[in-house]
Amino acid sequence: MSVTRSAVTGVGSYLPEQIVTNADLAKFVDTSDEWIQERTGIKQRHKARDDQPTSDLAVEAARKALADAGKTAADIDLIIVATTTPDMTFPAVASIVQHKLGAGVGIAFDVQAVCSGFVYALSVADGFVARGLSKCALVIGAEEMTKLMDWTDRTTCVLFGDGAGAVVLEPREGQGTSADQGMLGFALRADGSKTDLLYVDGGPATTGTVGHLRMAGNQVFRHAVVNIAEGITAACAAADIQIADVDWFVPHQANQRIIKGVGDRLGLDENKVISTVALHANTSAASIPLALDAAIKDGRIKKGDMVLLEAMGGGLTWGACALRL
Questions:
Q1: Which helix (H) or strand (E) holds 224?
Q2: What is the pLDDT of residues 215-236, one digit of tens each?
Q3: Most exposed among 172, 205, 209, 311, judged by the fewest C-beta atoms under 10 Å?
């Protein structure tokens, strides 16, 4: 039986030029490089300029993904941006990206699921491509999390960074098996009763301000390990594969302890886990495509590999995606 799937045909990423090390933070926050690395595995993060909005980061990543796929802006008919740090309340970052890229009239909108946003956005784009509603989709995760930080709160400000990653999705015909190229299975979840564990204390309909990120770190950690493991198991079941069939795990880069905790719970081979958290910190919806691009560019992940993506973020939201490159 012939099945149309959405397949990743190009990947790209972008990180702002400014690097902020743990030692830099220790100059104005009560922290240290040792304290941060021991608890998170983070060594540094990138920070966007004040005059560099999220859309600028998204555009740079998008251009690289398009070049990697051998496509131009004229080929794009769908743009979805996963972000929790938009340039403005509206229009969507995706619309701004469409204009900055010089793409023609098409579909453009944002997805807001915080750190799980990229997995959510992939599932939405997959629906468009698999149903024949898009021939060339651009899915971007782009964030400027440093602009949500309370720089007096050492428990949160050391965790986050800025960046963007993008993929191009195109239709590919398969036989309806796990040997097909493309998206094979998703698991998406949300539990709104846990909103108080990870949130921003501002918004246009409440305070009229942007607000700052607030997090109950220990509780988020506990939920992350359990929820992500469940999501991974469900996504594998949806794709009709086993954990052992996965060549590479590309997790949301929140905290090295969470990545290890999930791996231990599922018995994952640590040599198959892609980790960039030390250099990027937590870039929310951008973290998965940033890590995916890094691992493809350095030759670890290759065409034909079975890849598993997973994330958890504020909402609480979580999800996983199994795909073959």
A1: helix 217-239
A2: 998 999 889 999 999 999 999 9
A3: 205
Distance CA 139, CA 1 (A): 28
238-284 pLDDT per residue, tens: 999 999 999 999 999 999 999 999 999 999 899 999 999 999 999 99
Query: Which whole-number Å values give the CA distances from 268 to 110, 232, 298, in the listed order?
Result: 33, 11, 21
Q: Based on the residue annotation, tell me whether 252 is a catalytic residue of this protein.
A: yes
Residue 1 pLDDT class (50, 70, 90 cuts): confident
For 223, the token pair is 């939920």
pLDDT for 110-163, tens place per residue?
A: 999 999 999 999 999 999 999 999 999 999 999 999 999 999 999 999 999 999
User: Which among 46, 212, 252, 280 is annotated as catalytic?
Assistant: 252
DSSP notation for 122-140? HHHHHHHHHTTS-SSEEEE
Backbone angles phi and psi of 147, in degrees to 5: -80, -5
The H or E element that residue 57 is part of is helix 54-69
Among the listed residues 22, 227, 282, 321, the single catalytic one is 282
Which residue among 22, 115, 136, 280 is the active-site one? 115
The set of residues, in sequence order, having a beta carbon less than 8 Å from that of 238 and lying 6+ positions away, is 184, 185, 186, 187, 322
- Whether 99 is catalytic is no
CB count in 10 Å sphere of residue 68: 19
Which residues are bridge partners to 107 per DSSP?
Answer: 78
